[in-house]
Specification:
The protein is an alpha+beta fold. The protein has two domains: 108 residues, Alpha-Beta Plaits (2-Layer Sandwich); 54 residues, no CATH class. The protein contains three helices and seven strands; from the N terminus they run βαββαβββαβ. It is globular, with a radius of gyration of 17 Å.
């Protein structure tokens, strides 16, 4: 059985988003309010009871890849060929070397047409994004995922809300 993670970020990668969103989510009872941290437990709002395990907050000086879960099934934007292996080989190579990179500038070469594309240009059912600040809800178990996402969007109208399933 797979799980779902929901990522919240701004399309324009606005700095300060994470801190502001954490405050709003705490006030709305989505998460336990508290000092700035890396992880937050569920809040006491009825509609979030059991809906997710925890909320994580990510902040970095350079844009980071979204999602972090192995949930992307990318294809080439030019030829439509599958680039799954090239995509994950590229990510693993960068991470194994411990490089700090601007993920929005990382390219993956299609093994079919040999076009090098930015990872954010790759085709995927949900998409590949990069941001310096984002929040993610881990192991989302919402009975009605679209309604849960809509409620989050009501609380954080500026946020991009993207759900990724993984196994």
């Amino acid at each position: 059985m797979g799980q779902t993670s929901i990522y919240l970020f701004t399309r324009n990668d606005r700095l300060g988003f994470a801190e502001e969103a954490l405050e709003v989510l705490g006030q709305a009872g989505v998460i336990e309010p508290g000092p700035i941290a890396a992880y937050y437990g569920r809040g006491d709002a009825d509609w979030v009871d059991g809906a997710f395990e925890y909320l994580g907050a990510h902040r970095s000086p350079l844009p980071f890849i979204i999602p972090q879960d192995p949930a992307i099934e990318p294809s080439c934007p030019a030829c439509g060929g599958e680039v799954y292996e090239a995509f994950y080989d590229t990510i693993n190579e960068i991470e194994d070397e411990g490089q700090e990179v601007d993920w929005s500038k990382v390219k993956v070469t299609c093994p079919h047409c040999h076009l090098a594309s930015l990872i954010t240009a790759l085709k995927d059912a949900v998409g590949v994004f990069c941001a310096r600040e984002y929040l993610y809800l881990s192991d989302v178990n919402a009975e009605d995922l679209p309604a849960f996402e809509a409620r989050l969007h009501t609380i954080l109208p500026e946020a991009e809300i993207k759900s990724y399933g993984y196994t």
